């Protein structure tokens, strides 16, 4: 029986050498699982202003937060502003790691002033427009209103289809995004919570490796069928020769 040696390289790729094709499929597919689903990422993070400090109110220098696999919970307060004649603004820059997508933006909690509050998202490290931007057209990727009626709902599709925004379809890929969360009622403090969900996706190189492994597995099956055919053909020939000699 031929032996299989699978050697992981620094880039998580594998060299399967001196290997029987059937062993490639059984061994190498298991070994490349981390590469197929992206680099290992930390578990989802939890950021709560009550314990982690106030989120930035400066759109040019948002609070930095690198998201992890699974649910990432952001909990904060807004309403009473430290600056007169301005709402309490929260700006957070989130990073979606390579090999992952942001596929859910769930309103986990909402105690807002009035019917709804506002959340916007822009590609990059900052929000480039002021809080009192008056035009419906903007450089935001998307925006949405949220309140008690949206608790438990995924508003990512609403963000992607917001009027006047750049817009997007489906999940957001790896990269950096700036969040803008705002409540216009400054009479008292209100609160919000969002669950941002990350899912691992196959990396292009790993997809190619899987395709090669599957192809080699198919080649192994064809070779086995050919060997069986030759074996039976030779056996049948010997049997016929034995009968004719009798």
Summarize the structure in words.
With 246 residues, the chain is of the alpha+beta class. It folds into two domains: 5-37 and 203-245, no CATH class; 46-200, Jelly Rolls. It is built from five helices and eleven strands. It has helices spanning 21-31, 33-36, 49-52, 156-160, 204-245; strands at residues 5-8, 14-17, 46-48, 63-66, 70-78, 88-96, 100-111, 117-123, 142-146, 175-183, 190-200. A five-stranded mixed beta sheet has the order 4-6-10-8-9. Strands 3-5-11-7 form a four-stranded mixed beta sheet. Strand 1 and strand 2 (14-17) form a beta hairpin. Helix 1 packs antiparallel against helix 5. It is elongated and about 85 Å long.
What keywords describe this structure?
single chain, 5 helices, disordered N terminus, 2 domains, alpha+beta, five-stranded mixed β-sheet, four-stranded mixed β-sheet, Jelly Rolls, 246 residues
């Amino acid at each position: 029986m031929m032996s299989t040696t699978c050697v992981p390289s620094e880039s998580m790729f594998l060299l399967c050498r001196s290997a029987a094709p059937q062993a490639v499929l059984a061994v190498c597919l298991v070994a490349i699982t981390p590469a197929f689903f992206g680099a290992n990422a930390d578990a989802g993070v939890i950021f709560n202003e009550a314990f982690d400090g106030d989120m930035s109110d400066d759109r040019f220098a948002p609070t930095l937060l690198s998201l992890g696999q699974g649910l990432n919970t952001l909990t904060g307060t807004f309403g009473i502003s430290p600056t007169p004649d301005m709402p309490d603004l929260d700006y957070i820059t989130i990073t979606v790691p390579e090999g992952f997508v942001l596929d859910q933006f769930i309103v986990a909690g909402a105690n807002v002033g009035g019917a709804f509050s506002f959340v916007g998202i822009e590609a990059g490290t900052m929000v480039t427009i002021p809080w009192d931007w008056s035009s419906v057209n903007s450089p935001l990727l998307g925006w949405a209103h949220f309140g008690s009626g949206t608790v438990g709902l995924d508003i990512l599709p609403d963000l992607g289809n917001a009027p006047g925004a750049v817009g997007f379809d489906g999940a957001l890929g790896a990269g950096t995004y700036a969040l803008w969360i705002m409540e216009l009622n400054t009479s008292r403090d209100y609160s919000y919570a969002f669950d941002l969900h990350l899912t691992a996706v196959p990396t292009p190189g790993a997809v190619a490796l899987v395709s090669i492994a599957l192809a080699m597995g198919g080649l192994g099956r064809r070779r086995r069928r050919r060997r069986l055919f030759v074996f039976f053909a030779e056996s049948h020939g010997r049997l016929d020769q034995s009968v004719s000699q009798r």
